[in-house]
Design a protein that fits this description.
The protein has about 200 residues and is mainly β. The chain has one helix and nine strands, in the order H-E-E-E-E-E-E-E-E-E. The chain has one domain: Porin, CATH 2.40.160.
């Protein structure tokens, strides 16, 4: 009898003393996901150039995390009297935050953090090549056009580092203020999960 009573008291003490485990991301809920095209307008070696690509992310409450990729194949660039086509591509992580995203127009901010390559090409042969790091913070507004489509209009700065092997150019020739259009298609947390 004593053993049974001692076992019951020990079991009761263990269950009442058990602490709730705390975690860093307990309050984060995946509320949606999106993807779509990204168009970025800026300067490359003094020429206004568009970069086109895309990205996608999962939405965690008001924040999102995902990936992106952008690229361009212009402008022409002269080195020692020879003209080359610039190919600049980068991709990596995409982090962002939307404030009051249920409103038709709301604050939108993000940062694209990536790695890429700059190549000078002549008749489809790569003549010069360099690996680079790119960081593009941006802020602007996002418009809820439909329940499944949003348009982001932002301004930011593309900072590029690591340009060492492109003759006559440096990182500053690829770093520039940018204007960005982001087309986002997906679910943004405004659906009823009981519909699943």
């Amino acid at each position: 009898m004593k053993k049974s009573l001692l076992f019951a008291l020990t079991l009761l003490a263990c269950t009442t003393l058990q602490a709730q485990q705390e975690t860093l991301f307990d309050d984060l809920d995946i509320v949606g996901a999106f993807g779509g095209p990204i168009v970025e307008i800026g300067n490359i070696v003094g020429e206004t150039t568009g970069m086109v690509g895309g990205g996608g992310a999962i939405i965690l409450n008001s924040a999102f995390i995902g990936g992106y990729g952008l690229g361009t194949s212009s402008p022409d660039y002269a080195v020692d009297g020879n003209n080359y086509n610039i190919r600049f591509r980068h991709g990596g992580f995409w982090l962002g935050y939307t404030y009051k995203s249920n409103k038709v127009i709301h604050l939108y901010t993000s940062a694209r953090i990536g790695w890429g390559k700059i190549r000078l090409r002549d008749d489809d042969d790569t003549v010069f090549s360099d690996r680079v790091f790119a960081l593009t913070p941006e802020v602007g507004v996002e418009l809820n056009l439909t329940r499944w489509f949003r348009l982001g209009l932002t301004g930011g700065y593309r900072w590029v580092n690591g340009v060492n092997r492109i003759p006559g150019a440096d990182s500053g020739d690829f770093s520039t203020p940018v204007g960005v259009l982001t087309f986002s298609f997906g679910g943004f947390g405004d659906w009823d999960r009981s519909d699943w």
